[in-house]
């Protein structure tokens, strides 16, 4: 303990999955494989006493490495104590690059399993398991563990696809345990390890998610859990998950009509403002001495989560209290970004540039009609003011006269409102992109030009400044040919400054997208401003009683 030997790094990933076994009798039974980590989190306690067989067992680690994940199974327990993701590098300050992301804290487990029988509860962490030789079934790696305990004869079989973040666990009891086992208690890790540059922000995202029946996904932050009493939910629970900002561990029952029947959540005392540890235990019925689970341990990748379980892609609900509005747009935006990425095979920086131009081109016809309607309103503004003055004491005649004037120019009283619609349409997309950039694993650590990470703020603040300048240029061109308006002139200066301050610390990818939209809108704004300056105002249109004689020169 005083002079520990240097820890060895896990072997590199290869296309062919392989397995190795190491004797670790000098370390604690639940010690995981080497992985750089912060201070250990408290492990979930069990309410059972270790069996006599476990005390004499020699603990060992079995490594199963696939194309995407390295699992380190430990005995006693027969479950992974370390899950390493070589595709994703740790961004922690001071981390040696490239260091793969490790999902679990030292001493924790991917799953802690307890078997409930008629008169006892036995923790599998207290039972020694013997690993069988690895086998292959096509692209699937098969690894089995058999308990060395006569008190609880059980076999755990893992089927691990080589190109997935999913493992399939099947458990079977034999002897008297087959008839006595009633329920399986499945406890998730106490937390998902933080490997981000902003550790505080990542800690704020720690949460438990679960789906009951066909209801919407429930998401409960660690800080919302009571430390004095447990929160219990019952029903047909399709899956239970634990997440941080970018990664997730989820347990999904497998088999016909297989569901968790209860979920127990409990918080733990914490000194700071943010809770860092929580305990989530799900109850799974054991039928005929068998149970089956699908476990996802990997990134919050929309494609992978969607294929794993229904609605699992919504484990991290976008938008908070605006979830019902933002989530549909976020889903559409994610699908479009992924489609552009896979179709054009370009980096996500260029994906955002292309997406910004596409959105502006799609809105071009609506903007064109809206701006021309605004030009019509400006030209008939003198007539509207004259009607309002003449019939100031007769609202009914004023309304009829204004309606007639609108009809003469091919407009309606709703034209001013409809003219604002093109400006409002991009807003839901902008809101959706804000949450997409804050929580999407595809953009994590992605560099573009001078930007080291599209999901983080610009370290040189070039993109928010450029966004503000492009917004000012758009407003300045839009003011050309318009009647002098001190209020409009003030807004053309104030709004770019306000948006620059608002976007100052936003994700650099969001600033990039918004700046590209502004630049793509400049040609249309310039063409319409040129059209506006050549148009002549309407002069002295007759009012309904024949007054106000004159001619009308309306080029529209």
Please provide a written account of the structure.
The chain is α+β, with helices and mostly antiparallel strands and 556 residues long. The protein folds into 2 domains: 18-317, Distorted Sandwich (Beta-galactosidase, Chain A, domain 5); 329-534, no CATH class. Helix content is 33%, strand content 24%. The chain has a 15-stranded antiparallel β-sheet that branches. A 5-stranded antiparallel β-sheet has the order 1-2-3-4-5, with no helix packed on it. It is elongated, with a radius of gyration of 31 Å. It starts with 17 loop residues before the first strand and ends in a 22-residue tail after the last helix. Mean pLDDT is 78; it is low at 1-58 and 538-556.
Q: What is the molecular shape?
A: elongated
Percent helix range: 25-40%
Q: Radius of gyration, rounded?
A: 31 Å
CATH architecture of the largest domain: Distorted Sandwich
